[in-house]
Automatic annotation (TrEMBL):
Ranges of compositional bias, category Low complexity: 45-59
Enzyme class, spelled out: isomerase
Keywords per UniProt: Isomerase, Rotamase, Signal
Signal peptide as annotated in the record: 1-25
Described function: PPIases accelerate the folding of proteins. It catalyzes the cis-trans isomerization of proline imidic peptide bonds in oligopeptides.
E.C. code: 5.2.1.8
Region of interest: Disordered: 29-68
Protein's name according to its UniProt entry: peptidylprolyl isomerase
TM region(s), chain numbering: none
GO biological process: protein folding
Amino acid sequence: MAFLNKKRSALGALLLAAPLFYAQAEEASAPAAEAPQVKQEANSTAVEPAAPAAETAPAVEDKAPAASITEPAVKVDEVKTDEVKSAPVAKEAALVKEAEKVSAVAVKEETKADPEVKTSPLPAITFSLNSEEQRRAYASGVTLARYLQENMAHQRKLHITLDPNIVLAGIVDAFANDVKMDEDTVRQTMAVFDEQVNLLNKAKAEQEAQREREMGQAFWSAFEQQDGVKKSRTGLLYRVDQKSSGAAIGDRDIVEVELTGSLPNGTVFEKTAQPIRVKVEDIIPALRSAIKLTGRGGEARIVIPPEQGYGAKGALPGIPPYATLIFDIKVLKVTAGKGK
């Protein structure tokens, strides 16, 4: 798990010793004796009308993916952050302006192709998908198309739209060795396009990081004012909801805990499906301190600032850069470690 130290990263990508999700093995199916034949129509390079989504460029909503759970069991609603979330920190106008500025960069050599070009005809073929070679070929085409679709969806978030029919025409022409642009123009066009996408990605990342910092600061300030909240020597905010008992927890001890990790906006990025056992010294310092603050048999909420969490890099699919981390921890059992 990302919460484990790097030297123990072989234990898995998650903090939990047992994964929360299990990949189900694919069922091996023998090829049908008589697979239905599939006919690819000639000149069928046009994308169906559903594709014009690229023309209208519908806004694609950004969602922070949860690393291991979809519904937060713990509501982070004690601190109101709606005002910060809705503040126009990352304005789309800035991205649009950046896109227009970079798009204005002219390619050094203009294409010598005619104003209107026609793609090479796609030959009609019939295939049955009853051989491994045919399935591999078809699956490769599907995979390539989905990769392009994902890229184009991301580009629409940056206010860049590409006509899917022309993208498809370029693929067909390349396979037919009938490309309508010379190689220098292809390279120069893609160089300018890549520069545009990189600049817009950077601007978008900076805006999202600023928004994350502001949400975290708002949550931190409000939580700090709540009754019973204290600040540890290491700089964490914590509130003990159930007092602990017994000796203090040591680095070599093995603890059995229930844990929920969330963000200031309420997104849960980690939740134990069942109690897990972990050696205290094997987890990141901030969470190690959090478990010690919670104590044997205790329950606590711990708030970790970005500089003690994952900083500018973030972690997991659900922890963005500069994220303030909120952990609700319950220490169920402590086993004394050896060599203390």
